[in-house]
Structures are given as C-alpha cells and as structure tokens.
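Internal QA ticket QA-208
Title: Verify multi-chain structure generation after dependency bump
Assignee: T.L.

Test input:
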Amino acid sequence: MPAKHAAPASAVLETSPAQGASTLPSAKLEAFLADCQLPTPFVVVDTEVVAQRYDALQDALPMADLFYAVKANPARPILDTLIGRGSFFDVASLGEIEHCLAAGVTSDRLSFGNTIKKRAHVERAYNLGVRLFAFDAEPELDKLSQTAPDATVFCRVLCDGKGAEWPLSRKFGCDPDEAERLLHLAADRGLRVGVSFHVGSQQGNVDAWDAAIETAARLARSLMGRTEPVRLDVVNVGGGFPGIYQREMPSIDLYGEAIAASLARHFTPLYGDYLPRIIAEPGRYLVADAGVLRTEVILVSRKHELDEKRWVYIDCGKFGGLAETMEEAIRYKIRTPHDEAVENGAPVGAVIIAGPSCDSADVLYEKTDYRMPIALAEGDQVDFLSTGAYTTTYSSVGFNGFAPLADYYI
Amino acid sequence: MPAKHAAPASAVLETSPAQGASTLPSAKLEAFLADCQLPTPFVVVDTEVVAQRYDALQDALPMADLFYAVKANPARPILDTLIGRGSFFDVASLGEIEHCLAAGVTSDRLSFGNTIKKRAHVERAYNLGVRLFAFDAEPELDKLSQTAPDATVFCRVLCDGKGAEWPLSRKFGCDPDEAERLLHLAADRGLRVGVSFHVGSQQGNVDAWDAAIETAARLARSLMGRTEPVRLDVVNVGGGFPGIYQREMPSIDLYGEAIAASLARHFTPLYGDYLPRIIAEPGRYLVADAGVLRTEVILVSRKHELDEKRWVYIDCGKFGGLAETMEEAIRYKIRTPHDEAVENGAPVGAVIIAGPSCDSADVLYEKTDYRMPIALAEGDQVDFLSTGAYTTTYSSVGFNGFAPLADYYI
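Actual output:
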C-alpha cells in the first residue's frame, strides 16, 4: 500500500491561480529554469512535485488505490517516482503494459483501463499477469470472458461530465441500463465484476462524483438481487482531479471528502462497512503541475498596423506538445520575462498565441482573453505552467520538420 | 523545368466520388493491399500516382513552377519521385530544408514558405543557399533584410478562404494595406519582392484565386508607381488544389484555366506579356490520393441495446495519423470488406467512428453521416482512401503507448 505522510507538502497544492502566473511549484524548477541554456522548446518536470501530489491525493482518498493514468506522461522517472510511492497503474495499451513491466511494475498493479482492446492484446496482457480490465460493450465482454476467464472486469458507465473543463465525449461507457445487462452477463459467466466511470477531465465540481456513485450502487443492488448474490469487486471512480490552470479549483481535500461521503451514503446501506475495492485513476493531478514547458517567441506581429491585438508566435504549438489547447479547453498560465515589470506598471495588451508550424489550425488561444506584456519580443522565453501532463506524448513525430518535444526530469 | 507529358494518366484524376469508395487510384495499390499481411495501422503510397498528379498539375498550370509543400508528406520516396519530375520544394522549417538537401534538392529550388522563422534559422537557410522567403510582418521583414540581403521576399496576404473545406485561420498573412506598406519597405531596402496567398485547403471553387490575384495586381501597380518602378519578382498562388474525399470537386484543368484567365485579366494590363514568376505550392493534391491507410476494427458496439447508431472503434485515430478529421473537416472515403455485399443489397447503418486511444477527443466522425455495413465486425480491415497527405507526420510519438503510423512506398 502507498506510504502515508503525516505532513504532505500541501503548500504546493494551495498555490492559488490568484497569485499570478509567476509562481512555480518548486525552488528546484525555478533554479533549473533560471540558468537554463537548453534549446527550446522543452518541458522539465520535477518528480518531487509528483511525489507530493501523490501523497496529497492518497491522504485525501485514503480508501482508494491510486492507479496512475500512464498516458498522462509515461516517462520512466515519473514511473520510478510513483513505484517508490506504492502506486498502481492504469494502462491504455499493450505498449503501456510492456513499458510499465519493464520499469519494474508487477502485473497485479496494472489495470487495462481502455474499453477498446484488440483480442490479441487482451490475451497477451492476461498472459503477462494482468487481471483487471475495463469494458463497455458485449463484444468486448466476449473477448474478456473468452480470454481472461478469472479476471475482474469493470463496466464503464456514461457520465454527463457537467462541471468539467474538458467534458468527455460519449466515446467511453454505456448507458446504465446496458451496464446492468452486461454486468449480469459477466456474472453469469463467472467473472468478477466492477463498475467504473469518469466525471470529466479537470472537474471543478467536487459533487460531480455523487450521481455516478449512486448509479454504481444501483447496479450493485441489482447484482445483490440475484438468486446467488454477486458483490461488486471494484468501484473505479476514475480521474478528473484538476491541475492548476487559469481557473481556480477546489483543494484536493474537498474532493476526497465529497467522494467519501458519497460512497458512505450510497454503499453503506448496501454493503455495511465492507466497501468494494475503491480505485481512482489520477493522471493530470499527479503530473501536470510538476512540469514547465519553455518556449521562445519567434515573432510578434499585427495583421494591420492599427490592430490592437497582436499575434504572438512561439516555437511550440498544437503539434509539438500543446495539443490540449484544442478548442482552448486547457488554458495554461503563462510566464514571461517581463512579468515583474508588469507588476510595476508596465503595460500589457491582448494577444492571439500561435505555434510555429505552417498549419493554420496551429493557433493556441484566439478566443480566450490572454494579455501579454507590450514589451514582449522575438527571442523572449515564455513558460507554460502545469505542462507535465498530456504534452510529451501528444507531440507529433516530426510535423513540419520540427523535432518532438524534448523533456527533462529533475 | 518539369518534364511535360502529352498524355498524363488523367483517368486517375477523373475517379469520381460518385463511383463509390472502393476504387483505388492504381492497380499496384489494389495488389499490395489484396494480399497484405502487414500489421495495422499503416499507410501505403504509390509514388507513380504522385508522379501522375505532378504531371497533371503541371499541364494544368504550365505557367507555374510547382513547389511541393513538403509538410504534406516528407518521405524520401516522394521527394525522389518529385525530384525526378523537376519539382521545386516549399519548406516549413530548417529541418525540412536539411531533409530536402540531403535528398539531393539544390537550394535554388527551395522556398522557405513559413512566415514564422527563427532568426538563426533564416541565417542558416541563407548560408545553405536558400534565396526565397515568405513574410507577413515588419519584424520578420527585418530579420530577412538583415540576414538575407539579396533574397526575394514574398509577402503573404490574407484571403477569406470562402469555398474551402478547410478555410484557413488568420494565422498567416496580413491585410492588403499592410502588405502594401511592407512591400514598399522591402523595396526600399533593396530586396526583390513578391506576393503570396493561400485560398484555403481543399478549395472547391476554381474562381477563389481571382480576388487574391486581383489584390496581388493592385500591390504590383502600387510598386510600379514608385519613382523608380519596382516589378514583382514572384506571384505565389499557394495551394488548395483538392484531393478526392467525400465531396465531388472540379477537375484540375478547370483550376488551371481559371488561374490563367485571372492572371491574364489582372496582370497583362500592367506587365504586358511578361508575367512575374508564377509559383504554386501543391501538397495535398500531389500526394493525398496516392495513399491508402489501412486500419482494423477493434470493436463495434452500442451505448444502449436499442440504439440505432453503432460505434465503430478502429486501430488508428486522431493521434495516430488521422488528425485531419479534426472538426470533421476532411471526410475520407472508407472501404470495407463488405462493400461488394452492400452493392448486392446487404444492409448498412449509421455509425460513429472513433480511434483506439483512451482520449475522449479521439472521435473521428460523429456529426458526418457515415454509414457502414451492418455485418462489420471486430477484425475487419477498413481502408481510408486519399491518405497520402497529412497523416504520417501528424502522428504522435507514442500517445497512449501506440507506435507512430507505419508507412510504405511502392
């Protein structure tokens, strides 16, 4: 089980967006970036911040096993840090399974959380020792019952995603009625069963989990009503715990309290004191804030001499790591060399921020009201905060002849 | 100069969308895919089709030097094919310049068409022999006049993009008034000057070039009005020539006729018979149709037993090469193993098509009314046509643990 710490570095978590963009989560990152001569763009991640986030989340959710969503950032130093903390791992593919095993994760700590798996990959995962699988449809359940007969299979149920900065599509999960049918079918086939859901990425409403947990309890009750009652083996409350971007978010403790209260409210009447195994799948929360992405300004221009709004072109764009700016869903805090001057009264002005590629879709922020120092110019280094998650692996292999995003771990 | 062919394989170009999805542009591709045991996903490109497209476009635009937009697909076999045809090359970055030079392109055949360039990269490009550069703002012009004093610099002017399937954002180009100011400034500094524009990717209106060419002529007239008249060195009519997707497009000859008529209408009164050098930057048109992307169906499911619409999950998604499905802008033709049965009456039904990653944004088509055979099932191989452009290099380095898209050239 994960180590518990009496005094997690919760000060780090309390970094408020209101404090301005210039606060980094650790002195180590400040020092690294202060005299950094590395070519841009790159992202640097402080693994100690990852460890702090892990401990803080485990403290907030003491009832849960934390399965790190490897897709957020699969870098070895991050896996090593989390292995040292006692983490479990949520994997999206056979590639991620092999990557985790190579890092020393044991297969009993893996959950194959993708509802879309090739049959051969389920088989291989099972042979490698994985015993925890997601599904949301009958053909997928068929694969699992045929290939992984003694596994625990958890059915993903659709959520509405209200309150999330990145509400999920209907891609994953099925309607609750369908989930009920599938869970009974899985039980008929002798599989151990669970329920999972995801309330949406960067979820700002700590009560968002309640409706889904209520649904999970309703499904649990249905399984208890069988001639030979079946208990849920697992309730997987997913992810959605926020990183620090432009919008202020509740502290992680409030998430923990809300989820604990909801589990008690809906499951205690059914199971008494013996809850199913509770699983969470944090990705962004554990690694986002630990990273800083440094870029360089290539050009500041106007489309017309008299335009008020400037275009700021930087050397990292949508295809080089900043893919989560898609539809401007994730709005990063941005730091410039002129921020101190701005605090002392130097002027700022509205900007559109765009990447370096010859792709007209490679515009990062156009609708969001970003303002940057009027003094900003070619060659200035601009830092995007909370970029430890969903940057490096989103990067393209070489779109427009640009190399993939470089990454460093300190 | 490019070789001209009396009888280009124009039959290839006339492949009409109305003929259904199952027509590939060459027998070589059919044969390759017929007994292909390669693991999916992959894209295969027939370079002979690329050569045919090059010849057809050169025939349609005999007055133009064709600068292949390398970003569309920088693979060596494609460069080799086009070098053999006498092509010029439009490059987006120093990386692409070095890649082209390594392939044997001479630097006088390169155009650094990105309006966003690091000063050090302009310098390096200039030292490598590049003498043709784009710009759209005064600070970029400063870089060029300081670093590339005897170059030809062409100013990109904004277009409205009407009629394009992928209208461009305002990222590239400046307002015509600003272009006029900048061109005079460039002339003051002794640079040779040109004008460029882009009417939008996958442009369906052959008359879309006219307004931009008229603007270019107006700018040319302004430069002729100087005490010492300055002639435009280059008019760059950009790209926008279409690939074959779902929507039927005019034949390439009609584009050529419209552009030639427009150049004559606007430039002959000004320059007589001596037009500036005309440049075009085809990317998609040359390589898209030459490629087929083969995927495998992983899962076909419904969110509820009674849903009419099925979800079809395949092993290639937005982050694995099909990035141009973004906002469903590019709607590929899709081929399944059941198409013959469908032609003989087997039923089809509405689908949503999604990729394999654990990313909820990785949905390819949800609003577009795609219909696929009811018989479609796990393991079926599904081909996306016209995927030779903007697939391989968009692919992520390893999002969700999936390898970048494999590519083959035949």
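Spot checks passed. Chain A touches chain B through 80 residues (CB under 8 Å).
Status: verified.
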